[in-house]
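The protein record filed here.
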Amino acid sequence: MTARPFTVAMVAAMPYPMTKASCIRVGHLVDNLSGEYEDIRVQVFAYQGTFGAPARPRVEYHLVGGFDSEKSQYYSWSNKLRADARVIREMIRQRKAIDLIHCHTIEGLGIALAFKALTLSRAPICMDVHGPVVPELVHYRLIPDWRPVVAAVEALESGMMSFVRHAFVSNEGLRSLLEKRLARERVTVVFDYVDLDAFGAARIDRARLAELRSRYKGAGERLLTYVGMFKDYQGVDYLLRAFAEIAGRHPDLRLMLIGDGPCRAEYERLIGELGIAGRVHLPGLVQHSEVGNWLEIADIVASPRIDNEITRAGFVSQMPEYMAAGKSIVATAVSGCSFLLRDGAGILVKPNDVAALARGIETALTQDDDAARAMVQKARENAAQFTWKQGISAVYSVYRNLLAAGGR
């Protein structure tokens, strides 16, 4: 008996598409759900992103304008709420088609709850929790770090979460935190998996590769590469200091920082202070579909993330892609990296420690070819157990179970 087709409202209070880990996760979910299951129709409700949304079978985009994605405005309440109101209006227009809501972040849950209140929809809600909610609100100064305010927001979070039928998280640490709000059987770990095909030889654009090498990698040079957002917890300042510490001993080494974010100006000042401006490339954000080309010209890739309350409940979403790309990896032992790089798949170093990071990079630079090949091979083997084709079935199962149980 064929299962009844259904429509999922994928609700993301963020620009879509955009080269940002949370948005890339949404994209992977949309692509794999529509690619693997013919009985699913996906409607994406989000802000208009930096790039055009890709055409996908059984996927509709409802992307609203009016959101200012400039770094100085990105996290302002007025900017967000105006865009959220437009998303709610779009959902109301599509209300008859929506069978189930998959929202992302606490803000996406707010949009979903407003939609249900205004339309009396019985569509069940599942939520993708991208990080610890209250610590992130404090970290980004969206609320003051004052106990009465924090307690009130925690109470509001608990009340909102009571309407969530099931939650998805990207790592076990976040699952443990969330179990204070939801029963364990209502929380499923869906890692930030990797699409291995995206990093295969067939996907590499040889003309683009030649262009990147010509522009960023001179003859005899080696590239140490970071891909990600420029946020303080990502530890890019530690990477810059570690690079400066070893640069004199490795004149052929260059540092490539691919990304952007609120700390860019701070990093640019630090590059000047460290005297390494001539050896650091800052190409900005690149489309996620292009990441494979950029990683192909790298010799070593780095994840310098620091250890704090946010990262302990986080996951380095680019790490599976580093592993699939076949490069030597140096990473701090936080946010799931110890598990991903187990059994010698990478060089793990102590977080929040410039000297340890510098030693790890130098180890990668000086290891012999056999050791490097063995490490890369193990990383690829680990990544092969970590694909979206394997992980997406858990999401589909939750959807079907929620629909079978009926609306709330």
